Amino acid sequence: MISKIEAIVLKAIDYSETSQIVWMYTRELGRISAMARGARRPKSKFGSTLQPMSHVQAVVYNKEGSQILPLSETSHHTLRRNLSRDLEKIAVGLRVVELVRGLTQEHDRNEELFDLLIATLDRLNSTERRTVNVLLFFQMQLAFLLGIGPDIVKDDVQAIDGDGYLALDTGAVSADGSRGGKRASRQALRTFAILSRADAQAISRLEITPKVRREVSGLIDAYFQFHFDSAYPNRSEKVISRLLDMANDDT
């Protein structure tokens, strides 16, 4: 069956001298793998549409039981030109699509996740400050959509005086480390809690010091790794780590 789909390109790899295999997250089919024959040719009909983070309209042959769908055509749906003009935005955007590719299943359709991905790329394209906040907010929203949203009680957060703990199984924060968990500063745990309940506009205004930002990123990574183990992707972790080192209060 021929299907017209709306998709975000997650990754593309060379398959032969002329073709590429492309991973996409689509509104209609969830995550798919597709074969783009001729994509590597100098005058390919696919042009620049197969770059990671590209938002495209595509036509695939959706054959039941097929692992890799033939991709017959693509065109740009929405161009977000600022994503390719800033190294921080490129790094964050690539981390976002890496997470979607690594933590979703083939053909597991989730329209809310697709909408989150679109909103995140829009926000990343338009933001001028605090770029890393976009990633932290996306990761927290992704946790909820994947069914592992942290269970945070406001009174428990307010009770922390000094260091506290994040329970990696539930995402609860507390001052008591008797049940284990990842130790963190009061400010990092409070920021983690804010990320779990605030909206995107509030997060875009949230000022996080580089030290706390790095600590919060470590909490989120540890939380995901607990739930997904080796499935949690970390290929871009070093790039994001350097970005966290370089980021100042205005990014």
Could you explain how this protein is built, in words?
By secondary structure, the protein is α+β, with helices and mostly antiparallel strands. The protein folds into two domains: 2-79, Beta Barrel (OB fold (Dihydrolipoamide Acetyltransferase, E2P)); 82-246, Recombination protein O, C-terminal domain (de novo design (two linked rop proteins), Up-down Bundle). It has eight helices and eight strands, in the order βββββααααβββαααα. The radius of gyration is 19 Å and the shape is elongated. It starts with a strand and ends in a 5-residue tail after the last helix.
Note the topology.
Layout: E1 2-14, E2 20-26, E3 30-36, E4 55-61, E5 69-78, H1 87-103, H2 111-126, H3 131-145, H4 154-158, E6 164-166, E7 173-174, E8 182-184, H5 186-197, H6 200-205, H7 210-228, H8 237-246
Parallel strand pairs: 3-5
Antiparallel strand pairs: 1-2, 1-4, 2-3, 4-5, 6-7, 6-8
